[in-house]
């Protein structure tokens, strides 16, 4: 892996998103695709800022984070890093993640989960190689029937094929409304509008041994 594409879905959180973007270094080997979920205001603000390493995309209809991510991921030609719009990365973190991935998966066939400083799924934030990405239909790693809560199937597939490693350091700071209720906003609520159906789908697929991307 030589290049990382970071995919961040966002909706109505411009200031929090800018804090996240500020924590990502403007390196030539990093590209950031911000997918604005029916959020033209944020899209236009990013276009106006003209950040050289940020590619804003607009999804015209509110579609959820899964669809937003999958809309841009298939074009990824090297490393894929998925994140959210309310995290902060430590200085030097991405170089560490890149070096670790290349050490553990020199064939680009693997997934590195990143530790967060709040309760989280091991693949809530992570880095995936292009060979592993090719396991998925249409190169869409998030099962399209989910609305928001879909990362667990990435973890299940990576563990199933023995291609998962969990990175403890440096961790990601997730400034989450789950830990601070004063941060709860419409975006947080929108992401959970179909949580019950996402969880029901997850439990059914897990019970039936179904894993997205598995042959």
- Low-pLDDT stretches are none
Tell me what portion of residues adopts beta-strand conformation: 15-25%
CATH architecture: Alpha-Beta Complex
Describe the biggest sheet?
8 strands, mixed
Number of domains: 1
Gyration radius over CA? 16 Å
CATH topology: Spore Coat Polysaccharide Biosynthesis Protein SpsA, Chain A
CATH level 1 class label: Alpha Beta
Strand order in the largest sheet = 3-2-1-4-7-6-8-5
Structural class, from helix and strand content?
Answer: alpha/beta
Instruction: Encode the helix/strand succession as letters.
Output: EHEHEHEEHEEHHEHH
The amount of helix comes to: 25-40%
Mean of the pLDDT scores? 93
Question: Describe it for me?
Answer:
This protein has 215 residues and is of the alpha/beta class. The protein has one domain (4-207): Spore Coat Polysaccharide Biosynthesis Protein SpsA, Chain A, CATH 3.90.550.10. Helix content is 33%, strand content 22%. It has an eight-stranded mixed beta sheet with strand order 3-2-1-4-7-6-8-5, sandwiched between helices. Helix 1 links the parallel strand 1 (4-10) and strand 2.
């Amino acid at each position: 892996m030589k290049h990382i594409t970071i995919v961040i879905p966002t909706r109505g959180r411009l200031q929090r998103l800018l804090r996240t973007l500020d924590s990502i270094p403007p390196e030539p080997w990093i590209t950031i695709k911000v997918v604005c979920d029916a959020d033209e205001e944020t899209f236009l603000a990013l276009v106006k800022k003209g950040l050289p390493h940020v590619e804003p995309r607009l999804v015209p209809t509110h579609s959820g984070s899964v669809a937003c991510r999958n809309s841009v991921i298939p074009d990824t030609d090297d490393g894929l890093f998925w994140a959210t719009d309310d995290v902060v990365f430590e200085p030097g973190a991405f170089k560490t993640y890149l070096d670790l991935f290349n050490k553990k998966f020199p064939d680009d066939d693997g997934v590195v989960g990143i530790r967060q400083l709040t309760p989280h799924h091991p693949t809530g934030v992570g880095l995936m190689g292009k060979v592993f990405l090719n396991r998925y239909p249409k190169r869409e790693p998030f099962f399209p029937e989910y609305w928001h809560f879909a990362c667990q199937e990435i973890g299940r597939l990576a563990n199933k094929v023995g291609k998962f490693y969990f990175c403890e350091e440096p961790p990601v700071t997730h400034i989450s409304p789950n830990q601070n209720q004063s941060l709860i906003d419409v975006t947080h609520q929108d992401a959970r509008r179909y949580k019950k159906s996402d969880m029901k789908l997850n439990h059914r697929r897990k019970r039936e041994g179904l894993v997205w991307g598995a042959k």
